[in-house]
Amino acid sequence: MPIKVTLNVVLAERNVKSKDLASHIGITEANLSLLKQGKVKGMRFETLDAICRYLECQPGDILRYAPEADLAE
C-alpha cells in the first residue's frame, strides 16, 4: 500500500510513549501497535484527530504517500 504510517517517528521525536497516547485517545495499545506498523486498512478521522491533537501535529506528519515505484529506488 502506498500510504506509510510514520507515527513511531513522531512519538520518538516528542518523547511520547505509545501507552500514554493509546490511553489518551481511547484505543488499546494493541490497536495502536497495529496502526504504527501500518497493518491496518483504514483509520477513523476521529482517531486521526485525537492523535494529532495529543501530539500537536498535522496528519501529514504521521502519514506519508509513497508510491510503489518510489519504494524500489
TrEMBL record:
Pfam families per record: HTH_26
A GO molecular-function annotation: DNA binding
InterPro entries according to UniProt: Cro/C1-type_HTH, Lambda_DNA-bd_dom_sf
The protein, known as: Helix-turn-helix transcriptional regulator
